[in-house]
């Protein structure tokens, strides 16, 4: 089956190589609030609070870009892992890929609905921050779990 929207298989290994250390180091630096001073820069910003006021909408702010670096690395590497072809990409793998993506979206939005009802204030902001990454991570986890189950079954040969 010809699938045009997937990356070549070799990108999956590159994605895993970047995703695992980025996620671990990113979470550790986030929880321990580690921000090295050499990553402090003046960066362009949009001031959303001033959107409907007569104040400056665009400007520069002093920001440590460590979180942005790890966020970008996690998103790009998770996309590479999630949307790289398998060595044998057939219709059944495509079916598993689609079902895993639908499942990941359902679970992600179920958690988001739960958060809307039961989590408030600054804690809700943390939920929203992690929610940016969970669709991809849920998809990667479920898809790879389904593929490993398929490979262990007796009727499947590569």
TrEMBL record:
Keywords: Membrane, Transmembrane, Transmembrane helix. It comes from the Bacteria. The chain crosses the membrane at residues 14-32, 65-84, 96-118, 124-143. This is Uncharacterized protein.
